[in-house]
Amino acid sequence: MPSTDDAARDITEGVGATALGIAAARAAETVSDNPIIHDPFAQVFVDAAGMGMWTVTANPVLSAAFIAREPGLRAMVRALIDFTAVRTAFFDEFFSGAAQSGIRQIVILGAGLDARAWRLPWPDGTTVYELDQPTVLEFKSATLQQQGILPASHQVNVPTDLRADWPTALQEAGFDVSEPTAWSAEGLLHYLPAEAHDRLFQRVHALSSGNSWFAVNAPSKRRGTVAPGSPQTEPADLEHLWYAGDVTDWLHQNGWATSAVTLGDLLARYGRVIPDGDVMPTVFISARRLTAVDRSWVGQAQRPIR
Ligand SMILES: C[S@@+](CC[C@H](N)C(=O)[O-])C[C@H]1O[C@@H](n2cnc3c(N)ncnc32)[C@H](O)[C@@H]1O
């Protein structure tokens, strides 16, 4: 797992490069025969980053040539594209629902090369705050500006480290704690240490007025610890990471109503199949912070997903 790298000089280095891999998968899905998402800006990012594995993933011709030489990678490439496509669709639908409910303040945690502030049809008066490492946000803004691509919202970059005091940076950028907010943490938890998970949920909660929305994807299963000497593909403090059940439990205890869908169910919803669905075990959770009125009749009838 690439670690968050304070010294990364550009998007192709450190954990920022994971955003490029996801953009490449979105680009591939966008030009596929039966796309479930449309992200015309993903290819713009891939091109601007220069040659790399992302170039191959994004381009169906290069990808086919690569797979012809390495047939064992076919399933992996397909799984990455399908996973990214359904994940993107889930968060797109979440934001579209939040906007329809009247929310005009959006916060995207670990925004990476997600171009929602540019590509979704936001209602007038919507502000989208994007939090990520400075190198990632600088690359994204500069790339789109150079192409003359304008945001479809009032888009605000908040360059920050999500392990540090990001609420101050967010509020200094104009965030209004009294307004309902739609938050997302898409493809992010895996890259943060456990104590940053605790703080992330506590901070989202503290900054959310009633009727705020929150969507996050979280690992669905606890896995064994990494054997000594094996490649470090997982964070070291596995036991303390937040898994889907922890997230829904915590949200319920703190006055949020949740719904959750497994990756398998989400793939089925869009007619996609990842043969070994366990490759990327994850649950997609959406939540709404209840108001005092809601709490008086909803009670505690919700069941967390594990
Ligand atoms: C896998 S990418 C997902 C990006 C985006 N949410 C998407 O789905 O396209 C993970 C993102 O988290 C960001 N990230 C990871 N750790 C971070 C940290 N400590 N502070 C700020 N951003 C971080 C990375 O820079 C990267 O853009």
From TrEMBL:
This is S-adenosyl-L-methionine-dependent methyltransferase. Keywords: Methyltransferase, S-adenosyl-L-methionine, Transferase. Its EC number is 2.1.1.-. GO terms for biological process: methylation. NCBIfam families: mthyl_TIGR00027. GO terms for molecular function: methyltransferase activity. The keyword Transferase applies. It comes from the Bacteria. The keyword Nucleus does not apply. Exhibits S-adenosyl-L-methionine-dependent methyltransferase activity. InterPro entries: Ppm1/Ppm2/Tcmp, SAM-dependent_MTases_sf, SAM_mthyl_Trfase_ML2640-like. Belongs to the UPF0677 family. Pfam families: LCM.
